[in-house]
Amino acid sequence: MNAGIFIDSYLPLVDGVVTVVEAYAKRLSEKCNVTIFAPHIRNVDRSYDDRFPYKVERSFALMKKGDDYPQGYPMLDPAYLRKIRNAHLDIIHVHSAYTLGLCAKHFAKKLSIPMVGTIHSHFRPDVRQHVGRAMTEPVVRLMMSIYNSCEECWTVNEVVGDMFRRDYGLKAPTRVMPFSTDHHPVEDREKSRREVNEALGLKGDDFVLCHVGRQDLQKNEEFILRSLCEFKTLGRSFKMLFVGDGSRHEFLRALTSKVGLSDDVIFTGSVNDPEKMMKIYARTDLLLFPSEADTFGLVKIEAACQSTPTLLLEGTMASDGMTDNVNSFMSKPDEKSFAARIMQLQDDRELLARVGEGARRDLFRTWDSLVDDVYDRYGELIDNYRRKHAK
After folding, report:
1. Order of strands across the sheet with 174-176?
2. Distance, CA of 144 to CA of 321 (rounded, Å)
3. Is 197 exposed, middle or buried (0-12, 13-18, 19+ CB in 10 A)?
4. d(C-alpha 237, C-alpha 258), whole Å
């Protein structure tokens, strides 16, 4: 089997989608031939891509000022298009519905092969931020033409599938394919915590909160800062770690200073070393993930691996399937309620620890068994497609 995975960004850039694709590709390459088709990234050459156990082909791309990722233009790159044709693909898996997704749609039709799509995010807010309100719906319709060209679309839960059918006009069949993590529990938790304390200037008794993700304001980072202002007015001390980078990084730094939280907030920048990231999760007392845009939130599984619980907003897609006070914590979607919940958990360390263990028990799983399901489903989709289109 020859599988082509199309994505609009790839390593060394890191986000939730890239993390999922890397996990897929690494394990699928043990079962079949895998090629990742992605945009070129400046300063990344062939020697970087040759280290992977699968092929990575990169298209012509441009990086616009203010963007976090380069914009690929595969249809303007004849050499790249030849590489797609020469890969002799049996199936295409698209993980992002931008230019590489349009390219995937073109070749699935041209080569008469099935295409499956994974829906990672509630992308209308992101589109609006990049193209403006007037162009949002035309761009969303174009993106949905990619997903509606798929034999089926994969979502992390039924709620996401229902939402895309209701709000985006998804017509392709859906299947639930959950996410997992490559992380593993640290061997010596106390040693790991001491190392993070030393690296970030933390005290052993600091109450540490953390947010992990691309800083583009889509994950409610401003809400976090406003909530922490409320928390601080209650006379509470804490340290907040913002792990990641992004186009609004400097804005968040300036806002932190403006609202008087400079002594309480640490911006670590991107942490691409998995071992370092696992140690940061181990040092974190509570992960804050109030995103209303994410369909899932891989970070809550990564944190659960270290028995670190997550505080989410009630009614969000990321909170679907989670149970308050069992394997996560929930808050009403306002700053005062969020701050009050943090205060309660700071005071009840026994509850914090018990739910952290519940998160590890209920959420933590590895990719191995899940990718077995992916490979098996690829085979079924290929067989079904060939029967349906047999002449």
Report:
1. 55-59, 33-39, 2-6, 91-94, 115-118, 152-155, 174-176
2. 26
3. middle
4. 18
Chain mean pLDDT for the chain: 94
**Kind of pairing between the strands at 208-212 and 174-176:** unpaired
Give the H or E element holding residue 150.
none
Distances (CA, A) of 65 to 61, 119, 188, 246, 252: 13, 27, 43, 12, 18
pLDDT digits (tens, 9 = 90+) for 288-319: 999 998 888 889 999 999 999 999 999 998 99
Distance CA 162, CA 139 (A): 21
Query: In sequence order, what are the beta bridge partners of 39?
Result: 59
Tokens representing residue 131 in the block: 């193209």
**Whose CA is closest to 213, among 16, 63, 21?**
16
Q: Which of 6, 8, 15 is nearest to 246 (CA)?
A: 15
Tokens representing 69 are: 């990722």
Task: Grade residue 272 by pLDDT with cuts at 50, 70 and 90.
Answer: confident
Encoding tokens for residue 325?
Answer: 């006070």
How do residues 314-352 score in pLDDT, each as one tens digit?
A: 999 899 889 999 999 999 999 999 999 999 999 999 999
- Cα 115 to Cα 122: distance, rounded to the nearest angstrom: 20
Of 291, 322, 327, 296, nearest in space to 309 by CA: 327
Are 172 and 147 in contact, with CB atoms under 8 Å apart? yes
Q: Which two tokens stand for residue 356?
A: 């952290």
Query: In a 3-state reduction of DSSP, which class is residue 195?
Result: helix
The mean pLDDT of 155-167, rounded to a whole number, is 91
Own/partner pairs, 77-80, CB within 8 angstroms, 24+ separation: 80/37
Phi then psi for 330, rounded to 5 degrees?
Answer: -120, 150
**Residue 48: CB partners within 8 Å, gap ≥ 6?**
12
Instruction: Tell me how far CA of residue 37 lies from CA of 3, 18, 58, 104, in angstroms.
Output: 11, 12, 6, 9
Could you tell me how many residues make up the chain?
Answer: 391
Tell me the chain's radius of gyration from C-alpha atoms.
21
For residue range 363-378, list pLDDT tens digits in order.
Answer: 988 888 789 999 999 9
Does residue 294 contact residue 156 with C-beta atoms inside 8 Å?
no
Question: Per the structure block, which two tokens stand in for 139?
Answer: 């761009």
